[in-house]
Write a structure and sequence with these properties.
Elements (H helix, E strand, L loop, with lengths): L15 E6 L6 H6 L4 E5 L9 H14 L6 E5 L7 H13 L5 E4 L5 H18 L6 E6 L2 H5 L1 H5 L5 E6 L1 H8 L14 E3 L10 E3 L4 H13 L3 E4 L8 H14 L3 E4 L3 H9 L4 H19 L5 E3 L2 E3 L1 H18 L1
Parallel strand pairs: 1-2, 1-10, 2-3, 3-4, 4-5, 5-6, 6-9, 9-10
Antiparallel strand pairs: 7-8, 11-12
The protein binds glyoxylic acid and magnesium ion.
Magnesium ion binds next to α7.
Family: Belongs to the HpcH/HpaI aldolase family.
GO molecular function, one term: lyase activity
Keywords: Lyase, Magnesium, Metal-binding
Length: 324
């Protein structure tokens, strides 16, 4: 290990994160009753310019009056390039800061963007005498944000998570797609001719690099990497496939842009019983190996060693966190 110790963000459950437009208060109660881990009330892209002021009021009222239970509550503010953003921060933190856990910063491009919001939030918290510190979640969804992802991840003690905003990322990088998430058949490999002369097409995941890059920056800074939206809410299989790819790379959650996606995210992002049992067997086998002075042993015909302990501990810790 490096001598550098990575400080971990507060251990919040973040398997699913529901997007709820601030301009749709009729959706708030249902969201509060759902099984989602994190809710972000949106002031940004789901809200039309003329509705921004009203949406802000709705969100402040809802944070203060609705019983959100133990859910982690976030607000997505507008981008730093808009004049809505300062009022989003001032009004929401001043008037509802005590029930607000996180602020989601969209289209973050540089570490200085994080610094600017940190400065504003710190002043408001101090002026109000809030005891709790509000955390930050950042959407990595522009070429600039991806270029600076490591600096952004390290930019504030408030940082908790990085989110891959696939829709805006596609727009920013001018990727050839018009859907939100999912795959494009043009991103494929054509095999050489097979024995019967035919050629197979293997679809690739055009988001692989971006997601993997973000996961590394998040983990290197003790933050949660979270996969963003999947637009086709009538395609649960497609959603689950995308969530599984993200989970395999190290993401611990995925957005739900529709309530039906909450259960799918919770399922995919929770280790299965079989995985947890296997992890517990690895830990037991390694404990026995250590008692015999061995650093590596075989379990079910496969080598396990000290790295296996660390992998197994991640799974067991996650299962414990979910169990509550
Ligand atoms: C989310 O904000 C996205 O652009 O995908
Ligand atoms: Mg976006």
């Amino acid at each position: 290990m490096s001598f550098h110790v990575i400080q971990q963000a507060p251990a919040r459950l973040n398997r699913s994160e529901l997007a709820v437009p601030g301009s749709a208060p009729q959706m708030f109660e249902k969201a509060a009753q759902s099984d989602v881990d994190v809710i972000f009330l949106d002031l940004e892209d789901a809200v039309a310019p003329d509705d921004k002021a009203e949406a802000r009021k709705n969100i402040i009222k809802a944070l203060n009056e609705i019983d959100w239970g133990k859910k982690t509550m976030s607000v997505r503010i507008n981008g730093l390039d808009t004049h809505y953003m300062y009022r989003d921060v001032v009004d929401v933190v001043e008037q509802a800061g005590e029930r607000l856990d996180l602020i989601m910063i969209p289209k973050v491009g540089t570490a200085a963007d994080v610094y600017a919001v940190d400065m504003m939030v710190t002043q408001i918290e101090d002026a109000r005498g809030y005891k709790k510190r509000i955390g930050f979640e950042h959407i990595i969804e522009t070429a600039l944000g991806m270029q600076n992802v490591s600096a952004i991840a390290a930019a504030s003690k408030r940082n908790e998570s990085l989110h891959f905003g696939v829709a805006d990322y596609a727009a920013s990088t001018r990727a050839r797609t018009t859907i939100i998430g999912g795959v494009n058949p043009d991103y494929a490999v054509l095999t050489d001719p097979l024995a019967d002369g035919s050629r197979a097409v293997h679809w690739g995941d055009m988001w692989h690099y971006a997601l993997a890059r973000m996961v590394v920056a998040a983990r290197a800074n003790g933050l949660r990497p979270i996969d963003g939206p999947f637009g086709d809410f009538q395609d649960p299989e497609g959603y689950k496939a995308a969530a599984k790819r993200a989970a395999v790379l190290g993401c611990e959650g995925k957005w739900a842009i529709h309530p039906s996606q909450i259960a799918l995210a919770n399922e995919v992002m929770s280790p299965s019983e079989a995985e947890v049992t296997k992890a517990q067997r690895i830990l037991a086998a390694m404990e026995e190996a250590a008692a015999q002075g061995k650093g590596a042993v075989s379990l079910d015909g496969r080598l396990i060693d000290y790295a296996s302990i660390r992998q197994a501990e991640v799974l067991v810790a996650k299962a414990r966190q979910i169990a509550g």
